[in-house]
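DUF4861 domain-containing protein: structure, please.
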Amino acid sequence: MKKGIFLILSIVLLSCTDKSSAVLTVTVKNNLDFDRAFETVEVDVTKIDLERKSLEVVNAQTNEVLISQTVYSDIEGKTNKTILFQPAIAANSEVTYNINLVEEKQIDSSLIRCYSRFVPERTDDYAWENNRVAFRTFGPVAQKMVEEGVKGGTLTSGIDAWLKRVEYPIINKWYARGVIEKGAYHKDIGEGLDNFHVGVSRGVGGVAVKTDSTYAVSKNFTAWKTITNGPIRTSFILDYADWDVNGNVIKERKHISLDYGQNLTKYRVELSGTEHVSIGLTLHKQDGEVTTNASEGWMSYWEPFDDSDLGQGVVLNDKEGLVDFEKYITDKKDESNLYVQSKVSEIIEYYAGFGWKKSGQFITKTDWNNYLSHFSRCVDNPLQVIVKTSLK
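Here you go.
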């Protein structure tokens, strides 16, 4: 983790902005007994007129500018604006920031580390990444190919992991290699590779609904919408066709985001037609070690993986909704998964991701499990954000 901390501090810039340009002040408090970084603060700036202007976040004490990202979203036909930034806050302390209105700035493309896109050149994947991890999942064309017996299709709503071991973006590079040489990204040339098999499993955090002694799942996504890419966050929406569980119609929509410096993707899933949902991690060869922690709401699977080790994990947002864990083993190909079952009332939020030993981020199962425990504590105790309007 120290490597990532150095990266974000190294790209902090000195501000020459006059304090009189501040339109908001934001005080961020850390009430936990450890230092915190790579947690995203979100401030609503919808009421601020940004015509030919940009916003920057400045440490009020040091005048340093933090990297930030302004996100536009449509809610009920109205455009909302949110500014994102990631403060570094020492244990049991607070820092105040000014949000300044400045001359319009172009986004530095070299700082876009959180990135996602639809990938039509590889059938119809949707892929996303940040500086630590990468993922993909599969669309309707890939599903149709399987259903029609066409070679090369994929039928799954599971989440595939791309094991990168560099901090710069690799999605476009790997897909470009794949166009020139089929399956090229299955070879590691120094950046990592795709050697994670998802099949019909849940992969890293796919959902399922338990029915009797088995699990029902959706098929591939049917539609997508990219919301934002940038230095702090990538986010998008995936829609799924209605699916059936013992006569109950399940409706599913995933709001997915991945922030800088984190190994876990956030899922906010709209799910109707069931009172319980299960989130799964594939067990692959079933030769790994399972850890579950009900009080902190997380589960982990640490497994030998080719010439390295791999940790997968899920952290629930709502710990009170947790029902049970199950290590589900079956003879059916790719259907053995580790599940956490939770109550759901229209929406469930959780985080799912991985840590690859070969990336140097996590060396042991203990390292990985400690990360999940730490992450869970931060989810339960978010940074306290106090916003005050114009200083003028």
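Notes: Helices lie at 2-10, 140-147, 171-180, 365-380.
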